[in-house]
Amino acid sequence: MNEMQLKYGCNPNQKPSRIFMEGGAELPIEVLNGKPGYINLLDAFNGWQLVRELKKATGLCAATSFKHVSPAGAAVGLPLSDTLKKIYWVDDLGELSPLACAYARARGADRMSSYGDFIALSCKCDVPTAKMIQREVSDGVIAPDYEPEALEILKSKRKGTYNIIKIDENYNPAEIERKQVYGVTFEQGRNELDIGNGLLENVVTDNKNIPDDKKRDLIISLITLKYTQSNSVCYVKDGQAIGIGAGQQSRIHCTRLAGQKADNWWLRQCPKVMALPFKDDVRRADRDNAIDVYIGEEYEDVLRDGEWEKVFTEKPAVLTREEKKEWLAKNTDVSLGSDAFFPFGDNIERAHKSGVEYIAQPGGSIRDDNVIETCNKYGIAMAFTGIRLFHH
Questions:
Q1: Domains of the chain from N-terminus onward
Q2: Catalytic residue from among 33, 46, 163, 231
Q3: Tell me: the pLDDT tens digits for 52-93?
Q4: How far apart are CA 73 and CA 230, in angstroms?
């Protein structure tokens, strides 16, 4: 198949719409179920590139949860602790495969943003992963293959309309890519930059020690940023993104946004939050919403009389600012990547508040000395990669 007609483009008024291969080549995908739309396919192709690269760089299966052409989460298939299984709502699924662990981590990083995601998997979709996907609100999935039983499970989603795409994992696009904006064609070489440990050799801080597992996390952050709308910053811990800030005009706003998401991820693991007395019939999405409000500044919206009764069996006590501060201080060993240089030390100050101890960024700011000095104040190890990762 050389082309695929679509219902419409980004919006219903944008017709006609299609994807096609120039020069008569075959599309590298096969739609096994559903009718993916324009944005679905943008997410699918960007997500596939991300997980393919994560697998190549780490040797581990990988997954990502994409929304509006940026990842809400990305992860590799490391085992889950009992705590993570509980906050990701997968503690009832029994034994999880590495791929299922990767998707649980990718979906669990920012469950609010992942609602209605498009999933990309680096490896053949297995039954444990399909069962996990089956009960999440999602638009579709792309993978190199599917186990027969897994495929049948996925086909049952959304009354049989769930989008399932199989991609040729051996497909390599042309070296030159093009797109049109306002009738003008833009052309550039594809970003085929190989992201590996070699980018982490120029450690410019007093602390030169970056352990191997933290190098892995920094590589995950950089590969994630490569497919995230700029400006972007990514916090990573234990093989998964825990906070991604995308598409911000200001670097500090990006660092704050991603840092707040990382904080929310950590606060979900606070014993007081994990013990919230939810009613048995509360939907997963409603639980996520309630938790997000409860740990935020607008907690009264879910705790006031007439509201808490909708989701809780009894009214929970407020998670105080002091309790949050005490719990957040326990989050350590976080790695952070930035798609372009930090212009001021305020980004480091904010990152430090979310437990960041390792940083990878291009360097090259006229205020590099201030950024390095701020890292040294907190004992943070920072590598200058020398490469920018803008994505638009």
A1: 3-167 (3.40.140.20), 195-267+328-384 (3.40.140.20), 276-318 (1.10.287)
A2: 231
A3: 999 999 999 999 999 999 999 999 999 999 999 999 999 999
A4: 16
